[in-house]
What we know:
Blueprint: H1 11-18, E1 30-32, H2 34-40, H3 46-49, E2 54-56, E3 64-68, E4 73-76, E5 94-96, E6 101-102, H4 103-111, H5 118-125, H6 133-136, H7 144-157
Antiparallel strand pairs: 1-2, 2-3, 3-4, 5-6
Helix pairs in contact: 4-5, 4-7
Bound molecules: zinc ion.
Amino acid sequence: xxxxxxxxxxxxxxxxxxxxxxxxxxxxxxxxxxxxxxxxxxxxxxxxxxxxxxxxxxxxxxxxxxxxxxxxxxxxxxxxxxxxxxxxxxxxxxxxxxxxxxxxxxxxxxxxxxxxxxxxxxxxxxxxxxxxxxxxxxxxxxxxxxxxxxxxxxxxxx
Length: 158
Ligand SMILES: [Zn+2]
C-alpha cells in the first residue's frame, strides 16, 4: 500500500510522477526529447508538438506513441512516420533506423554469416553508418541496444 507515493499527503510529487504514465494504457513511458518527436510525427502534426518534451509509450499492445499529459497531446502509431519496433505488428521492424536495417537483416547476419557482435553486424549490414539517432531513432537514442537484442534473438535461433 505504501509503495505508491499517492499513499501519503505529498500530492505534488504524485502529479509529477503521473506525467510519465500513458493516458491510454496507464503504463510508464520513456522520456523523449522534443527534437526527436518533431522528426517522428507526420509533417502536418509537427506544429502540435510545440517545444515540449514527450513520453513514449513502450507498451506493445497500446496504440499510443508520444504523449504529453500537461498539454493534453497524444499521438497514435498512425501519426508517426516510421513503425516502432517494439509495437505489435511493426512492419518493417527496424533495428537501426539511421541505415534502415531491419531486425530480420541482423538475425540473418547472425544465422547465415556468423555475426556475433554489434561490430560484426555493422560490417555485414552497414548498420549504424551516418548515425543520426537523435533524429531517426524513435527514442532518440543510439540503436546499439536494439541491434544487440536482435543479435541475441538470432543467436538463440541458431
Ligand atoms: Zn500506452
